[in-house]
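Q: Entry one of two.
A:
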Amino acid sequence: MTTQRTVLITGGNRGIGFAIAEEFLAQGHRVAVTARSGAGPEGAMTVTADVTDAASLDAAYREVEEAYGPIEVVVANAGITRDTLMLRMSDDDFQQVVDTNLTGAFRTVKRAAKGMLKARFGRIVLISSVVGLYGSAGQVNYSASKAALVGMARSLTRELGSRGITANVVAPGFIETDMTAALPEEQQKAYRDAIPAGRFASAQEVARVVTWISSDDAGYISGAVIPVDGGLGMGH
């Protein structure tokens, strides 16, 4: 029997974040999601917040804490892309991606950690990507922001590990989402051919790994990078 926890997922209004929220709900947890627009799945509390704005994030946390109590599991999932080759990439293209994907994760985790330290329990899950360690042409900004989450999780593990708090990275590969569906068919085929599993993952396959790493069963795993990529990133 899994202990019921209060869970907050950033960027829970679509794609992987939405699927993670659905899976936590299915397992009986109290779930809140942040979104800049739209809403999480039915049964989840949706609060409007932008991870690039610390004040909006703090207000969202207060709203969730008033409804559900302190956050016990936080999933830093909010992310954006601004893909283009490096020589065409503007400072702004780089800065915006890093501010959302990396600094946004820092703000999200820092705000959650206070309650976790008091409770001497916490699960921090950072959603990275196979390209964080594998690399991807046209994604210097995105891959840098996603690789940095590994160092963050490992430093958090050293800081918080003795207080019953774990910090792990889940690194999805290609997932069946609106983003991959919009790619040209030849490009989708080229990606599939590179994946040993020969297919893209469902968002639910990622969500189930996130709920497991957040569970009581995974209390002795911290600072790990868990790939959910069908073997694409092996050895990285």
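Q: Entry two of two.
A:
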Amino acid sequence: MSKKIYCIARFRAKTGKERELFEVLKALEPDTLREDGCLQYIVTRRIENPCAGCSDDFSIVFNEIWADRTAFEAHCNRNAIREFFQTQCLDENGLVEAHDVCVYSDEPEDYDAPVVGAKYE
């Protein structure tokens, strides 16, 4: 198991603003990919496909993988990320109608993690 953090950040653009929002989010990728602990940071947009269906209208999604909680939280506290959420998600004139950010772990709830350096008798 790992200490990785998997983040899914979903966005619903205001009417007529999806293309513009996608470009604003893509602009966040290069600097974020340079962050220590960033393993994956890809903005995607929903496409139609007969093998898949979607029950909501969050059409833009960031798929993120972070080395650990510390790296993820450092990312969230970067000025560029905080500014994005303030200007695009919270401010009245922003491009985002609604957003949803969730984090996940691949460790079971009661994972018996090995203790590094432990001595066994």
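A: Comment on entry two: The first strand starts at residue 5 and ends at 13. The chain has a mean pLDDT of 91.
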